[in-house]
Amino acid sequence: MQKAPAVAASGKINLSGLTRDELRDVLLGLGVPEKQARMRVQQLWHWLYNRGATEFDMMTNVSKEMRALLAEHCDIRRPEVSVSLLSEDGTRKWLVRLDDGNEVEAVFIPEDDRGTLCVSSQVGCTLTCKFCHTGTQKLVRNLTAAEIVGQVLIARDALGEWPSPADGRLLSNIVLMGMGEPLYNFDNVKAAMKIVMDPEGISLSKRRITLSTSGVVPMMGRCGEEIGVNLAVSLHAVRNETRDRIMPINNKYPLEELLTACANYHGVSNARRITFEYAMLKGVNDSLDDARELVRLLKKYDIPAKVNLIPFNPWPGTAFECSDWDTIHAFSEYVFNEGISAPIRMPRGRDIMAACGQLKSASEKVRKVDLPKAAPETIPENTPMP
Ligand code: SAH
Ligand code: SF4
Q1: Residue 2 located in a structural domain
Q2: What is the residue-wise DSSP string for 91-103?
């Protein structure tokens, strides 16, 4: 699946976000002898992903000649941050501009015991879930592995988190819950997560990474076996009739197939449950009957599960409404009393349109116009390297 590394208008090869194999190919292409390439890849890897280097001059253990060769033919560029917003609740959103001008969004959510980066896997999304803003975006393409990793690098630059701290990290978790369906971009998502999990680089444990899918059943097995991250499933309805209507992918992979794939997910146990996301949509999926059916299904398929109840986040032009608080509480309580954890996820970053399902950017004419007023980011994007 390997692709040619990105070459900038300057003609230079961007090393940022490349896999070990790709780095090796670049070095061999520059005439570095095979015997040396392995060691050079190790060095580059350390500087790129442990130290967050953006200049070859920083790579003090690499010979001067080698650094000059690299600087002549390569560079280390992050995708550009075109807009950066800070919510009143501390959530940050970056509008990330890719080399072809397309844009995606990444969101950082600080909490007491963790900091979660929500990463996009596609520009837009080919699926058209009716309650999701991203699903209304026309322009779609897969992100490269480098563009996915780029979002992590941008966040760590902004947080000043280089070199990789052993513990107490600000960016401690990643969720593939931004724009796009990650399992429709499997190879690149896999390559990107391998980079992010590599113990000699960014070194985030697979237990701290969660991939969310709308239910691409044929890829779920490979996700568990080949990437090994936690799984979240966008459920949102417990009857095929309703799910067909609000999530068209259900017509292809109905609930029975989806829940069977969840029950068989690699490594699933009581200690490692599947998260089911459930957006509370007024009058659509929020009755106590729905709660009963949800519990029945999870028990029938014997899935170690937790349910995240997400109050529906509105966006301009949506026909849906969020359920009333009493309804959400009653739903949560019912599921909880049946022995399944069902916390209500308080929305974060709504004022900057950063909450679940609100992400929509693309190279859209409406950009800031679309957004409510929010404090501009004050922290410089490219915090100098230590
Ligand atoms: N495409 C993947 C990853 C996106 S994750 C997926 O669908 O799973 C984002 C989560 O937010 C998904 O569970 C999605 O269904 C949910 N979501 C989408 N629109 C929403 C909205 N307006 N309010 C609340 N949650 C929403
Ligand atoms: Fe795509 Fe997920 Fe939104 Fe559905 S909910 S349109 S799969 S991003």
Answers
A1: no
A2: -EEEEEE-TTS-E
Q: Is residue 386 part of a domain?
A: no
Cα of 177 from ligand 1 centre, angstroms: 7
Phi and psi at residue 185, to the nearest 5°: -135, 45
Tell me, yes or no, whether 379 lies in a domain: no
Q: Ligand 1 pocket by C-beta < 6 Å: which residues?
A: 125, 129, 131-132, 177, 181, 212-214, 234, 277, 279, 310, 312-313, 356-357
Domain boundaries, position 88: 80-370
Verify that 208 and 61 share a domain, yes or no. no
| Atom 15 in ligand 1: residue holding the nearest Cα | 234
Peptide bond into 316 cis (omega under 30): no
Look up the CATH number of the domain holding residue 18. Answer: 1.10.150.530
Angle at 111 between CA 109 and CA 114, to 5 degrees: 95
Please check whether residue 246 lies inside any domain of the structure: yes
385 CA to middle of ligand 1, Å? 35
Same domain, 221 and 290: yes
Ligand closest in space to the Cα of 279: 1
Task: Check whether residue 314 and residue 167 sit in a common domain.
Answer: yes
Structure tokens at 20: 């070990």
Could you give phi then psi for residue 239, rounded to 5 degrees? Answer: -125, 140
From the CA of 131, how far away is ligand 2's center (Å)?
Answer: 9
Q: What does each of the 386 residues of the chain score in pLDDT, given as a tens digit? A: 445 566 666 789 999 999 999 999 999 999 999 999 999 999 999 999 999 999 999 999 999 999 999 999 999 999 999 999 999 999 999 999 999 999 999 999 999 999 999 999 999 999 999 999 988 888 789 999 999 999 999 999 999 999 988 888 999 999 999 999 999 999 999 999 999 999 999 999 999 999 999 999 999 999 999 999 999 999 999 999 999 999 999 999 999 999 999 999 999 999 899 999 999 999 999 999 999 999 999 999 999 999 999 999 998 899 999 999 999 999 999 999 999 999 999 888 888 887 777 777 644 533 444 444 333 333 233 323 32
What total of structural domains would you count in the chain? 2
For residue 176, the ligand 1 atom closest to its alpha carbon is: 3
Helix axes 288-300, 325-337, angle to 10 degrees: 30
Q: Clarify whether 22 is annotated catalytic.
A: no
Instruction: Looking at the CA of 178, name the nearest ligand.
Output: 1
